[in-house]
Design brief:
single chain, about 575 residues, alpha+beta, 10-stranded mixed beta sheet, 8-stranded mixed beta sheet, 18 helices, 18 strands, about 20% strand, globular, FAD, oxidoreductase
Length: about 575
């Protein structure tokens, strides 16, 4: 078994229209993956590295479904211990430790602290929850139960000292460390997991690694699976409306919480899924940011739900809920959920004021959980399984992924790809264990190494800019810098953190089809609350000549982006009288 050449240049990305044409012009592959969330993309990468003829499509943008609504964490799942999911915890911890090494540009160690308000609470009820997976009466876990959990977690987390062991502190030491925290606590427990500051770009790097394997690997966003006929899966280009049949020996359904809906469209009705909605808010609150002490606060609220307060990108992410959801409807963060988040912040940091004016972004998504009937949402397994059945209308196999989460995407893809290789009668030739992802390749591992990289690559753009680009793209920043300096460039007037040529590069090579793709998934502009109407206008003008938009299309994209930001993400933009026109 081999590993790919690690010295290759930037992967061959392309425009969205060209990628769609590559699928439609050759409507045949050994494997067709439907659903380009992180698990579909990771499976695509794994298969592409084995030389399998594989294509992946998504009805929307890449990573725009369930994968876009994560808590931005790579974690071992300490709370899964109470569910008895020891296999999942072991795999999750191993994959967390691996991602810290193979994707260090986006995955960083995260100190996590649990405030504890009692000593023995939950000891009697925990065994019943473990045995029955019923929530029962809400009861916070006390120090004894959490200590047992931390010891078990450490046993899974041993990795040559890569991740420190947990520590317990008493009230006095805890208040000295976190002076704004609720003084009624008795202890704190602190352990390490990992943060994922830009999950969408991590997923794109995984995708680009797959595309770099060769022309046998193709991908396209905004192509929807709408049916099945004797010639194959019916696909529809959601931009042009064109429909065509795509032939594949194996169809892989990785559409997450929409898996049953996709199977129904393919004439293979299923009832595998039972996802729950999770919402988050992003706050611009410097006092709360300082109160966290740079660590995630992870705890159990009085209703028994696990929640978090998490410093991220100069903001504070607060989440999450765990509510039933109708998959035919968009997921939105409701006002009741906002009230709930504010209540929990007040519970942990009672002296820190929070209000709705500080919310710069809110989002919601549905976890791709298995059907759970009367099982309490918090106890539904976060593990995954793969369902196999005949394709139906034509010879072949339909594989459906049930479950899956960000942390285990590499291991899950290895499992899924192994099943597919068996069906194809092929052997694995390339291992993804320890294989660097995208800009994580040769990423400087120490502060000193980072300074050397920044000095070497900052000669043309300046060291400050080089450092920003390294954070944004990992070591792929070297190719970005080459592009930026090939012709005259200038910062955006409405967002100096980006330049015109940087946006042009993204539009030209990363399958941007709509303005929202850029705002939500190619950059973190929306997440950080940095969108303004003048910025939308400027960005549309930069995209226009690259994507062939006229003035009417620019106006439509700006209007759609403003309405979508308000409707789904709670972003209010003040009106502005600025004409929208393509840039020249």
């Amino acid at each position: 078994m081999s590993t790919p050449d690690q010295s290759s240049s930037a992967p061959p990305q392309s425009s969205g229209a060209a990628a769609q044409a590559a699928i439609q012009d050759r409507p045949r592959a050994q494997v067709l993956i439907i659903g380009a969330g992180i698990n579909g993309i990771a499976t695509f990468r794994d298969l592409a590295l084995q030389g399998v003829d594989v294509a992946i499509v998504d009805r929307g943008d890449y990573v725009s479904g369930a994968s876009s609504a994560s808590s931005h964490m790579i974690h071992g799942g300490v709370r899964y211990l109470e569910n008895g999911e020891f296999r999942l915890v072991k795999e999750s911890v191993e994959e967390r430790n691996s991602l810290l090494k193979i994707a260090p540009h986006y995955v960083k160690p995260l100190k996590t602290t649990i405030p504890i308000y009692s000593t023995v609470s939950g000891v009697m009820s925990a065994p019943m929850r473990f045995l029955t997976h019923k929530q029962g009466a809400a009861q916070e876990r006390g120090a004894l139960l959490i200590k047992i959990g931390m010891m078990l977690y450490d046993s899974f987390s041993r990795d040559g000292g890569n991740v420190p062991r947990h520590e317990f502190l008493g009230r006095k030491a805890s208040l000295k460390l976190l002076p704004q925290i609720n003084p009624s606590l008795k202890y704190t427990a602190t352990y390490y997991d990992a943060s994922m500051h830009d999950p969408e770009r991590l997923a794109l790097d995984v995708l680009f690694d797959g595309l770099a394997a060769g022309t046998h690997a193709r991908s396209a966003n905004y192509i929807e699976a709408v049916g099945m006929d004797a010639a194959g899966v019916r696909l529809r280009n959601t931009v042009t409306g064109a429909e065509f049949s795509f032939e594949a020996d194996i169809v892989v359904n990785t559409s997450g919480p929409w898996t049953d809906l996709t199977n129904t469209a393919l004439g293979q009705a299923s009832t595998y899924m039972g996802g729950t909605k999770g919402s988050h808010v992003v706050l611009d609150n410097p006092e709360l940011l300082a109160a966290t002490g740079g660590r995630e606060i992870f705890f159990e609220h009085k209703d028994g739900r696990i929640v978090l307060i998490y410093p991220l990108a100069g903001r504070v992410l607060v989440g999450t809920t765990d509510l039933e959801h109708d998959m035919t409807q968009p997921a939105r963060c409701t006002e009741a959920e906002v009230d709930y988040f504010f209540e929990l912040v007040n519970h942990v940091f009672p002296k820190v004021a929070v209000d709705r004016s500080q919310i710069v972004f809110r989002f919601a998504g549905v976890r791709p959980l298995p059907r759970h009937d009367d099982e309490a949402p918090g106890f539904v397994s976060r593990d995954y399984r793969i369902e196999s059945r005949p394709l139906g209308a034509r010879p072949g196999t339909l594989l459906s992924l049930v479950g899956g989460k960000w942390t285990t995407f590499r291991a899950l893809a290895e499992h899924m790809s192994g099943d597919i290789l068996t069906l194809l009668g092929k052997q694995r030739t390339v291992s993804t264990v320890g294989l660097a992802i995208g800009g994580g390749r040769d990423f400087p591992a120490t502060d000193a190494a980072r300074r050397v990289w920044v000095a070497a690559n900052g000669k043309q753009v300046g060291t400050e800019r080089a450092d920003v680009l390294l954070t944004r793209y990992g070591t792929r920043a070297t190719e970005v810098i080459s592009w930026l300096t090939a012709e005259p460039d200038a910062p955006l007037a409405q967002h100096p953190g980006y330049t015109r040529r940087e946006i042009e590069l993204i539009a030209s090579t990363e399958s941007v089809m709509h303005l929202m793709d850029l705002l939500l998934r190619r950059t973190s502009i929306a997440f950080r609350g940095e969108v303004t109407l003048p910025l939308l206008t400027e960005l549309a003008g930069v995209l226009a000549p690259i994507l062939g938009w006229d003035a009417a299309r620019c106006a439509h994209e700006v209007d759609t982006a403003a309405n979508t930001l308000l409707d789904l993400y709670g972003v209010h933009l003040a009106p502005v009288d600025t004409p929208v026109a393509p840039a020249v």
